[in-house]
Amino acid sequence: MQQDRARVDMSFWAILPVSLPALTITGIWVVYAMALYNQHVCPVDNWLYNQSCEEELHLQSGPTLCCTLENVPLISKCGTLPPESCFFSLICSTGSFIVMVIVLLRYAHVIEKHQNCVLNTAALSTGWICAAGLIMVGNFQRLVYQLPGKHV
């Protein structure tokens, strides 16, 4: 009975590595859909971009959006302006937390099955550095936080 309960508890932790890409990929598409709905970016299938907005191309859709190279739907561009920037920050923070938990569980699993080694510790620190970088990317957008005296 005790062994069956431990097996059920461990199966819950097996969902984490699968939930990370499912959450982040779905979240990125939701951020893109929000940016597209608010006309902050052009659609992915629009391959015609104007050099300027003085003349419109006949194949472009959207009454007010002029598709220039400033409106290319990059991930960083989709998550820059509110309200999609708030959801982008939430997705990045949640994904970063899941990365930290997965890396910590993997570290503990390797220690339990084998002895501790330098490579395992290096993998733990590298994973946590990547998670910290994801938090910084998601929460410090370029247009919102600029250093004083620096013009980008």
UniProtKB/TrEMBL annotation:
Domain of life assignment: Eukaryota
Annotated CWH43-like N-terminal domain residues: 12-141
InterPro entries hit by this protein: CWH43_N, DRAM/TMEM150_Autophagy_Mod
Cellular component aspect of the GO annotation: endomembrane system
Keywords, alphabetical: Membrane, Transmembrane, Transmembrane helix
Location(s), subcellular: Endomembrane system
Main subcellular location: membrane
Membrane topology recorded in Swiss-Prot or TrEMBL: Multi-pass membrane protein
Protein name: CWH43-like N-terminal domain-containing protein
Organism: Esox lucius
